[in-house]
Design goal:
Distance between the termini: 42 Å
Strand content: under 5%
Number of strands: 0
Low-confidence stretches: none
Radius of gyration: 16 Å
Number of domains: 1
Helix content: 40-55%
Shape: globular
Mean pLDDT: 90
Largest sheet: none
Number of helices: 5
C-alpha cells in the first residue's frame, strides 16, 4: 500500500512534482505573438514579455536547476546568478 508521500512524489507524464511546478508556471505565461506584436509591446508596455517573465526568473533559481538537472554554466543555470534575498 502506498502512502501519501509516495503519491505526491509520483511522476506524471514523466515529470516530477518539482518539474510540474515550473512547467505550470511557464504555461501560465504561454502566448503566441507575432514579431510585430512583440515589438509593439516593447515600445508601449512597461512589462516584460512573457518569455522573460518566465526564463528571467527561473534562470536565477537553484530549485529550477536541481529540478531539471541543469549543469552549472549552461543557459538555464549560469555560473553567476542574480540573488536578491
Amino acid at each position: 500500500m502506498q502512502g501519501a508521500a509516495d503519491k505526491q512524489a509520483a511522476r506524471i507524464d514523466g515529470f516530477t512534482p518539482e518539474q510540474r511546478f515550473f512547467i505550470s508556471h511557464a504555461q501560465g505565461w504561454c502566448r503566441n505573438s507575432s514579431p510585430e506584436a512583440v515589438r509593439l509591446q516593447a515600445q508601449t508596455d512597461p512589462h516584460s514579455p512573457p518569455k522573460y517573465r518566465v526564463n528571467g526568473v527561473v534562470v536565477n533559481m537553484p530549485e529550477f536547476q536541481k529540478a531539471f538537472s541543469c549543469k552549472t554554466g549552461t543557459p538555464m543555470a549560469p555560473q553567476d546568478r542574480c540573488v536578491v534575498w
